[in-house]
């Protein structure tokens, strides 16, 4: 077991385990998992294996360089990417159980949410990178096979606060995700989106998600620099904003709305995460798009558009 894959018994002051992590290496699985700072509420993600950490930090550093520029071109692909990737605050090292562990510090996308609903959607039919061993490749090929082969995506985990059940927390992990197929994957999304009993989903919620998902899809249709393996899209919204919604606004899919009695609108977000397996495009595939990633994001957009 590696140093970042053990449950910490002595976290430094000002740091605690993240309570709403829905996928990846978690404390519930006996791993370090994501941490949250109490000072500014940012998220600390362990970098993991050395090469994975180097690749992911380099990706975020490149994005940060673009964010700091003063001459951004609207059509620049890195500038577009900045809109759909969590903000990055460096890679601090902290002492954990007597060992120095490096982290990637990111914004908490659920900050200010009373009932944070979070879904991790892993993108791509192929999730192993070019350096994967035959054993790793075989193990990855057998995970979430039905959904990955059909849609180029899978759902490792999600949580929601059920509005119809008075805010009851519902959590599903990888065991649930592995049972999903072409026949029932849409039910998982409807559950996450707090659909009504007749299948009605807030149109505003869908439109907000699709705004971000279209940006990601358009980026994936153009970018030829990288191949993204085992990367995810994180979906986030606050179900508490649905709680005071007028009943007539959720009576049918066409009339559903996220506007509550105070007239305020929540902000649903879709963000690209997990770049530990982001590899430069090989010379033999130069100037070609990442079809593996594109299939998954196309499928995700199609599913959400079907709910409109």
Automatic annotation (TrEMBL):
Enzyme Commission (EC) number: 2.7.-.-
GO biological processes: inositol phosphate biosynthetic process
Top-level class of the enzyme under EC nomenclature: transferase
One MF annotation (Gene Ontology) recorded for this entry: inositol-1,3,4,6-tetrakisphosphate 5-kinase activity
Pfam (any one): IPK
Catalytic activity: 1D-myo-inositol 1,3,4,6-tetrakisphosphate + ATP = 1D-myo-inositol 1,3,4,5,6-pentakisphosphate + ADP + H(+); 1D-myo-inositol 1,4,5-trisphosphate + 2 ATP = 1D-myo-inositol 1,3,4,5,6-pentakisphosphate + 2 ADP + 2 H(+)
Gene3D superfamilies (UniProt xref): Inositol polyphosphate kinase
Family: Belongs to the inositol phosphokinase (IPK) family.
Name of the protein in question: Kinase
């Amino acid at each position: 077991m590696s140093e970042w894959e053990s449950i910490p018994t002595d976290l430094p002051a000002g740091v605690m385990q993240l309570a709403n992590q829905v996928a990846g290496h978690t404390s519930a699985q006996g791993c370090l998992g994501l941490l949250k700072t109490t000072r500014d509420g940012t998220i600390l993600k362990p970098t993991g294996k050395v090469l994975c950490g180097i690749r992911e930090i380099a990706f975020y550093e490149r994005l940060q360089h673009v964010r700091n520029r003063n001459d951004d071109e609207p059509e620049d692909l890195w500038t577009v990417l900045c809109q759909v990737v969590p903000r990055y605050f460096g890679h601090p090292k902290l002492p954990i159980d007597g060992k120095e562990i490096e982290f990637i510090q990111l914004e908490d996308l659920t900050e200010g949410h009373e009932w944070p609903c979070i879904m991790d959607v892993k993108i791509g039919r192929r999730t192993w990178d070019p350096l994967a061993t035959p054993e790793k490749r075989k193990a990855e090929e057998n995970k979430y096979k039905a959904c990955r082969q059909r849609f180029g995506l899978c759902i490792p985990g999600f949580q929601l606060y059920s509005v119809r059940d008075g805010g009851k927390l519902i959590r599903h992990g990888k065991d649930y995700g592995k049972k999903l197929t072409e026949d029932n994957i849409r039910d998982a999304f409807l559950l996450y989106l707090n659909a009504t009993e007749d299948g009605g989903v807030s149109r505003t919620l869908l439109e907000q998600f699709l705004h971000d998902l279209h940006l990601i899809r358009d980026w994936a249709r153009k970018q030829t620099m990288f191949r993204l393996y085992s990367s995810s899209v994180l979906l986030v919204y606050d179900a508490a904003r649905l709680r005071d919604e007028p009943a007539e606004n959720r009576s049918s899919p066409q009339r559903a709305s996220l506007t509550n009695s105070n007239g305020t609108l929540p902000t649903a977000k879709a963000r690209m995460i997990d770049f530990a397996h982001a590899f430069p495009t090989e010379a033999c595939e130069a100037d070609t798009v990442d079809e593996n990633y594109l299939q998954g994001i196309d499928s995700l957009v199609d599913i959400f558009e079907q709910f409109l």
